[in-house]
Design brief:
305 residues, alpha+beta, Rossmann fold, 5-stranded antiparallel sheet, 4-stranded antiparallel sheet, 12 strands, globular, ligase, D-alanine--D-alanine ligase, cell wall biogenesis/degradation
């Protein structure tokens, strides 16, 4: 029987989401007949726990920093334990939003202009003509994101607060009006296009994970050629970053005033696997159950070559 160590929780700002993702994956894998052990890196020495557990495969259900950014992947490479999702370099690149954009640009993918600055500089004055977006350069799940609208006199004061507990490096980028789209890629194949809407100000952490915080429309009610383009761009982003397994690329689609503009925002190398997550929904749309998805991810596990 294949033994799978599911990593969940961790120390990032997305710990609670990871606990839910990991628990769901662990239960599904047990139902699929795997021998499963759950390990929380925040509660134990990860390397010692892995050596003791002796898993055949690691299912990495960690989200955010220290789990999605190449750190854990590097440890697993040293231990030579096959693991799910992307490898060291792809994970590190995709977690850093500006490095991701650099790769997108080199691959000819559509992006918006942006700069990376210290948070206190972003708090002191408008560094870009509003509207624009300010977000941590290496956090996920829309943690610490602010939209500065036209007419706002100054950036959010929270950016300069001594209570700020996220990274000091912030990305300031052009705001793109329109619609929020996302595309999962499994292996090398795009699954579907989902449109995300929310009654909140934007698709932030609460909208992503709170019950009723957002609405997922699958397939997205957009022209067929736009859906095809979004799928192709997501596949190209997956390849350009060197991703493996499952990834999910987020877009803005500006169809205001008769426009047609798709812009890539970021690629998630370890998308959420909670009951409200987008990848399981897109897999189900393609006829794959949650259990089958988890099994596929485990069977796709490897080390970098």
């Amino acid at each position: 029987m294949t033994k799978v160590a599911v990593l969940l929780g961790g120390r990032s700002s997305e710990r609670e989401v990871s606990l839910v993702s990991g628990a769901n994956c662990a239960n599904a894998l047990r139902e699929e007949g795997f021998d499963v052990v759950e390990i929380d890196p925040a509660a134990s020495d990860l390397s010692a726990a892995l050596v003791l557990a002796k898993p055949d495969v690691v299912f990495n259900a960690l989200h955010g920093r220290f789990g999605e950014d190449g750190c854990v992947q590097g440890l697993l490479e040293l231990l030579r334990i096959p693991y799910t999702h992307s490898g060291v370099l792809a994970s590190a690149l995709a977690m850093h939003k500006q490095r991701t954009k650099d790769i997108y640009a080199a691959a000819g993918l559509p992006i918006v202009k942006s700069i990376v600055v210290d948070r206190k500089a972003a708090a002191a004055e408008h560094l870009m003509e509003p509207p624009y977006v300010v977000k941590p350069v290496n956090e996920g799940s829309s943690v610490g994101v602010f939209i500065i609208r036209k007419g706002d006199n100054r950036p959010p004061a929270e950016l300069g607060s001594d209570k700020w507990n996220l990274t000091d490096l912030m990305m300031v980028e052009e705001y793109v009006p329109g619609r929020e789209l996302t595309v999962a890629v499994m292996g090398s194949q795009a699954l579907a296009v989902t449109e995300i809407t929310t009654s909140l100000e934007f698709y932030d952490y609460e909208a992503k994970y709170a019950a009723g915080g957002s609405k997922h429309t699958l397939p997205a009610p957009i022209p067929e050629h736009v859906a095809a383009e979004a799928k192709q761009l997501a596949e190209r982003a997956h390849v350009a970053l060197g991703c493996r397994g499952v990834s999910r690329t987020d877009f803005r689609y500006d169809d205001t005033d008769g426009k047609h503009r798709l812009v890539l925002l970021e690629t998630n190398t370890q998308p959420g696997m909670t009951p409200t997550s987008l990848v399981p929904e897109q897999a189900a749309y393609n006829g794959m159950s949650y259990r089958a998805l988890c099994r596929w991810i485990v069977e796709d596990a490897s080390c970098d070559r």
